[in-house]
Amino acid sequence: MSLLDAAALLLALAAALGLFNHHVLKLPFAIGLLISSLLASIGVLAIDKMIPSLSLAERARGIVLQIDFAETVLSGMLTLLLFAGALHTDLSRMKERIAAITALASVGVVISTLVAGGVAHVLFGFFGIHVDLIWCLAFGALISPTDPIAVLGVMKSANAPKQLEMKVIGESLLNDGTGVILFTVFTSVGLATAHGGPDAAAHAMSLGRLVTLLIKEIIGGITLGLVAGYVCYRAFKTLDEPNLEILMTVATVFVIGSLAIDLHLSGPLAAVAAGLFIGNRGRIKAMSETTAQNLDVVWTFIDEMLNAVLFLLIGLELLAIDISRYFIFVGLALVPAVLFARLVSVAGPVLALRMGREIDPWTIRILTWGGLKGGVSVALAMKLPEFDGRAAVLTVTYVIVIFSIVVQGLTVGRLLRWAYPGTASTTDV
After folding, report:
1. What is the Cα–Cα distance from 282 to 294, expressed in whole angstroms?
2. Backbone φ and ψ of 278, nearest 5°
3. CATH 1.20.1530.20 boundaries in the chain
4. Is the confidence at residue 289, as pLDDT, over 50?
5. 68-419 carries CATH number 2.40.50.100
6. Average pLDDT for 63-80
């Protein structure tokens, strides 16, 4: 399938299923699109069971597998979506909660990774599925980041308190980078163990190598984003041409994505850094009001379009994974474990930062339940190399992501309205 054919198919399906959701399901756009594509996938599987001679499931699976989900999300969509989210984020509000945001996006992800990975190792063993601890930790790393797209939509539609909204949005913009770095570390160790034994694994996990990797990925990624954002900002100051300025932002994101891959830097962190710089300093000091308005319109459309395609792809991936009842049951059993890991990873940093001061009783609960998982988790799971239990890890990841988006996504708004009736932006959380 050519790139043009794949784009035409995905956009046509997104439009058709979006129309179905609008008139029939009447759910929030992204979640409705996900459920619609899940229903379509289930329909294909059901027809295939009833009329095996059509080989409908095999044909549909072949089409889905031609679209490299992991590459599409991690090397294409993610930088665009994170840039769009950062572009519309008020940095001054983010600075007010920078300590909490940084702690949740770094220490919190590490805690969640270790807890989720450890519990997953125990539960996989309990169900008789052999998965080495290192791959369970890789699973913990890929399932810990929250989905910025789902979180942004939920927080805004629910009119959450501004301080709480900024914590959740800020964390979701930054923790993808942490999760991807941890995932890279654990998969490298797993591959080293498989090919070179314990000595190779010890070398891969040496403190010097890990520190070097973290510095290069994090500092290098942020630096790349700031430099790209600054170049764009300086160019904006020399002209007032909205179409050209918008084109420059799109080009900047694609250049960031390409350089991050070539230089082995964190693309997600680079995209966020560039988006925050252009969306705040660039908007205030280098853009006319007309340019800023047009920029928002274009990037909102890009955000919504890619969001639609991403959630559509998540639903269609049902055709590409092992959906045996046993693995699905294991996935459902791991949902509470992942939520527990999220609770621990949120409660630790929040309680440490607010030691000695009163904490809003709903903060930890909402941060836990509102930590929605998304396409990044599925994409990372699909990047896992072959090992014993890979199919189980992939299916479990998919089940947890679907539960998170559908169940948590449809109820976190109600939780917010229950916790903060007549929400006021001055609520201290």
Report:
1. 14
2. -70, -40
3. 68-419
4. yes
5. no
6. 88
Please state which of the ranges 24-38, 114-128, 208-222, 228-242 shows the lowest mean pLDDT.
208-222
The average pLDDT across 98-122 equals 93
How many CB atoms neighbour CB 26 within 10 A? 8
Residue type, 5: D
Can you give the three-state secondary structure of the chain, one letter per residue?
CCHHHHHHHHHHHHHHHHHHHHHHHCCCHHHHHHHHHHHHHHHHHHHHHHCHHHCHHHHHHHHHHCCCHHHHHHHHHHHHHHHHHHHCCCHHHHHHCHHHHHHHHCHHHHHHHHHHHHHHHHHHHHCCCCCCHHHHHHHHHHHCCCCHHHHHHHHHHCCCCHHHHHHHHHHHHHHHHHHHHHHHHHHHHHHHHHHHHHHHHHHHCCHHHHHHHHHHHHHHHHHHHHHHHHHHHHHHCCCCCHHHHHHHHHHHHHHHHHHHHHHCCCHHHHHHHHHHHHHHHHHHHCCCHHHHHHHHHHHHHHHHHHHHHHHHHHHHHHHHCCCCHHHHHHHHHHHHHHHHHHHHHHHHHHHHHCCCCCCCCCHHHHHHHCCCCCHHHHHHHHCCCCCCCHHHHHHHHHHHHHHHHHHHHHHHHHHHHHHCCCCCCCCCC
Q: Token digits for 322?
A: 């092992």
Query: When comparing pLDDT for 423 and 354, which is higher?
Result: 354
**Are 17 and 291 a contacting pair, CB within 8 Å?**
no
Examine the pLDDT at 400 and tell me if it is beyond 90: yes
Q: Which two tokens stand for residue 421?
A: 């009736």
pLDDT for 144 equals 95
Q: Degrees (nearest 5) of the Cα angle 235, 303, 171?
A: 90
pLDDT at 40: 93
Cβ-contact 233, 278 below 8 angstroms: yes
What pLDDT digit, counting tens, does each position of 205-231 carry? 665 667 777 788 889 999 999 999 999
Q: Which of 417, 342, 358, 428 is nearest to 147 (CA)?
A: 342
Cα distance between residue 3 and residue 8, in whole Å:
9
